[in-house]
């Protein structure tokens, strides 16, 4: 049997639909990432989003009209949702089903890649990093943004407040971000170990009270 690509429960069916609806309430959550991508990716660049979930960021990037965007996610439900949302928005994004640690792309296919709020979910994180480096063109940039292992309680509460969720979703999301999700996440030192095992020597890791931002060069 093929190894499971993710930790915990897969984000399929109602879980994926709940996540898509909750995140859709605050679509400006992705604005900072669009700005970040625009710092690195010149117009005409081919961009890969690894684990886009409902696809909001990929769709926002495609909307700029400057990029060719591909999204790869292991969840069939998310890929279905993301394809429907792209069609609704009238933009083209190639959303595909696949595993971050066994990507269905040739070497050097992309100029830039981004992966948000998903890396801690991968069952083979070093394999995913190796694949990320492989599918980037030489000199291409990768950007991984995820929860840190030790987020501050205040930063979690402030982030959840910004999401504009209803009472039940807010309580669940706060619980998840304070309890089981950080246990899957990585410290800066652990991430440095993963990057080394993937042969990556050119990188920068920045921390905020909530997140770890990893920027690496292929
Ligand atoms: C919490 S969601 C984040 C979605 C989106 N990036 C966002 O910022 O809202 C985590 C995503 O990781 C995906 N995922 C988990 N393991 C994966 C793997 N091995 N390969 C590709 N996608 C994976 C899930 O299906 C899900 O879409």
UniProtKB/TrEMBL annotation:
Q: Which Pfam families match?
A: Methyltransf_11 (PF08241)
The answer to whether the entry has keyword Methyltransferase is yes
Biological process per Gene Ontology, one example term? methylation
Listed GO MF terms: methyltransferase activity
Q: Which Gene3D superfamilies match?
A: Vaccinia Virus protein VP39
Q: Glycoprotein: present as a keyword of the record? A: no
EC number(s) stated in the UniProt entry for this protein: 2.1.1.-
The source's domain of life comes to Bacteria
> Which of the seven top EC classes does this enzyme belong to?
transferase
InterPro entries, alphabetized: Methyltransf_11, Methyltransf_Superfamily, SAM-dependent_MTases_sf
Q: Where is the Methyltransferase type domain positioned along the sequence?
A: 48-143
Q: Which UniProt keywords are given for this protein, alphabetically ordered?
A: Methyltransferase, Transferase
- The molecule here is called Class I SAM-dependent methyltransferase
Write down the species: Nonomuraea insulae
């Amino acid at each position: 049997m093929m190894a499971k690509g993710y930790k915990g429960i897969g984000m399929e069916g109602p879980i994926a639909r709940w996540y898509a609806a909750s995140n859709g309430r605050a679509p400006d959550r992705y604005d900072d990432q669009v700005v970040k991508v625009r710092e690195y990716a010149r117009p005409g660049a081919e961009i890969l989003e690894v684990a886009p979930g409902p696809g909001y960021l990929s769709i926002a990037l495609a909307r700029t009209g400057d990029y060719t965007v591909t999204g790869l996610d292991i969840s069939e439900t998310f890929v279905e949702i993301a394809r429907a949302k792209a069609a609704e928005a009238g933009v083209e994004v190639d959303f595909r089903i696949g595993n971050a640690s066994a990507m269905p792309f040739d070497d050097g296919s992309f100029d830039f890649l981004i992966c948000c709020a998903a890396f801690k979910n991968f069952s083979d994180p070093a394999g995913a990093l190796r694949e990320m480096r492989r599918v980037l063109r030489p000199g291409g940039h990768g950007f991984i943004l995820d929860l840190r292992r030790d987020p501050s309680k205040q930063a979690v509460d402030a982030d959840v407040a910004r999401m504009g969720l209803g009472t039940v979703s807010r309580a669940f999301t706060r619980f998840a971000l304070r309890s089981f999700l950080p246990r899957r996440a990585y410290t800066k030192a652990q991430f440095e170990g993963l990057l080394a095992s993937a042969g990556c020597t050119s990188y920068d890791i920045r921390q905020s009270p909530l997140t770890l931002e990893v920027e690496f060069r292929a």
